[in-house]
Amino acid sequence: MKTKRNSNIELLKVIGIMFIIASHVASHAGVNLFAFNSKSILAVLLVYLGQIGNGLFIFSTAYYISGTFNLRKWLRLLIESWTISVMVLCIFAIFDRDRLSMVAVLKSILPVTFSSNWFITAYLLFTLLIPVLVLLVQSMSKRMHLYLLLTMLTLYSVIPCIFGSRFFTSGIFGFIMIYLLVSFLKQYYPNLRIENKCLLWVGTLSALIIVAFVVGVNFLGQFSAIVYGKTLFWQSYQDFPILVVSFSAFYCALNHPAHSWKYIDMISSYSLEIYLIHANILIMSTSVYSKLLTYFERYSIGFSFLLSTMIVGMSSLLLGWIYRKILGSITDRIACQISEHLYRRFLQYFQ
User: Fold this and answer.
1) What percentage of the chain exceeds 90 in pLDDT?
2) Among 269, 329, 338, 339, which residue's Cα sits nearest to residue 71?
3) What is the number of alpha carbons within 13 Å of residue 36 lying toward its C-beta?
4) pLDDT tens digit string along 230-280?
5) CA geometry: angle 260, 66, 61, nearest 5 deg
6) pTM exceeding 0.85
7) 216: pLDDT confidence band, cut at 50, 70 and 90?
8) Which of 4, 77, 312, 319 has the most CB atoms less than 10 A away?
9) What number of other Cβ atoms are within 10 A of residue 257's Cβ?
10) Which residue has the higher pLDDT, 351 or 230?
11) Cβ-defined contacts of 109-118 (< 8 Å, 24+)
12) Residue 83: left if φ>0, alpha if ψ -120 to 50, beta else—which one?
């Protein structure tokens, strides 16, 4: 069954993408993340906020999964990721060629094959697996589903959080883990009500643990070389405290009556374009975000980060809207033609 769109969940996606932008602004602003001062602490917390944003986006995506795979939409996103990346590359080749390197050119031509664009790559791979995952969930017993969910939570969330080992960790496994959690709740506890007060307490406690960890590590790092540089020990949305904050916010959104907000839904529909534009490897490798913060340095550091994030977010939304107006229909037609061709070849092969 396809889940009806809920603007509460769409708003979470918008908040999530803004958190991700804030994280990228902070991590590419030339701030020493390991120093013990207000600017460094705030920058690190914004980096962690980006991981919470990743979790919010993935929880929201998993909520809508119905079991069908739309090849046309999948191809459209793949073409969009390539087109936007190559367009940015061409702009840099014309106006700022000195910043180009062979590595940057290669990563721009193949944008979904390198870790620099890991989120879109993981998203595309995850959507390919959706029919298999839905079939797996439907065929499993409740006990087996819970066993698989707890196993993945242990391997991909708890162990990395405690020991820092990334041996099992992968971006796509995080998507699968969150999908197993959301599908378990939807399938077996569709009417489960967790009080917002309880969610608020749990989410706030997890957030305070993250803040205490950042402040403590940065402080101790000034006296110990062993501790210095370990501030980003929890560097993934899969790490347990970050996952708890994301889940708490997600379930709070579910607890509220469903709304329909046209503009929120519209902005949410541009989330992946906003990500592709602002997180482009060439844009983030320049000093754009650092210059933005420098321009607003007359304000408080918190307000500077906020203004920079809003400007990057609105600029990316505008560019995404322009892209769709100019190339959106062309991209859609190409994706449609390729998907129809592949579908015909598939039928011919099995006839």
Assistant:
1) 47
2) 339
3) 15
4) 998 888 899 999 999 999 999 998 888 777 788 888 999 999 899 999 988
5) 60
6) yes
7) very high
8) 312
9) 6
10) 230
11) 109/85, 111/81, 111/82, 111/85, 111/281, 112/78, 112/81, 112/82, 116/281, 117/81, 117/85, 117/279, 117/281, 118/171
12) alpha
Classify each residue of 195-232 as buried b or exposed e, where b means 16 or more C-beta atoms within 10 Å of its C-beta. Answer: eeeebeebbeebbebbeebbeebbeebeeeeebeebbb
Interior angle at CA 329, CA 325 and CA 330, nearest 5: 115
> For residues 64 and 158, what is the distance between their CA atoms, to the nearest angstrom?
26
The answer to whether the beta carbons of residues 236 and 169 sit under 8 Å apart is: yes
235, with CB counted inside 10 A (0-12, 13-18, 19+), is: middle
What the block records as the tokens of 179 is 């999908």
Q: Quick: pLDDT tens for 23-69.
A: 999 988 888 899 999 889 999 999 999 999 999 999 998 888 877 77
Query: Token pair for residue 202?
Result: 């749990």
- For CA atoms 240, 164, 119, 289, the dihedral sign is positive
Write the CB contacts of 179 (distance below 8 Å, at least 6 apart in sequence).
Answer: 62, 65, 126, 133
Enumerate residues 6+ apart whose C-beta is below 8 A from 115. Answer: none
Burial of 193 (0-12, 13-18, 19+ CB in 10 A): exposed
pLDDT tens per residue, range 81-140: 999 999 988 988 888 777 788 888 888 888 887 667 788 888 998 998 988 998 999 899
Structure-block tokens of residue 168: 């099992």
CA atoms 155, 161, 165, 171: torsion sign: positive
Count the residues in the chain: 351
Question: How many angstroms separate the CA atoms of 108 and 82, rounded?
Answer: 8
Max Cα-Cα span within the chain? 71
Distance of CA 6 to the CA centre of its chain: 19
pLDDT, residue 97, reads 79
Tokens 């120093």 locate to 35
Position 101 scores a pLDDT of 80
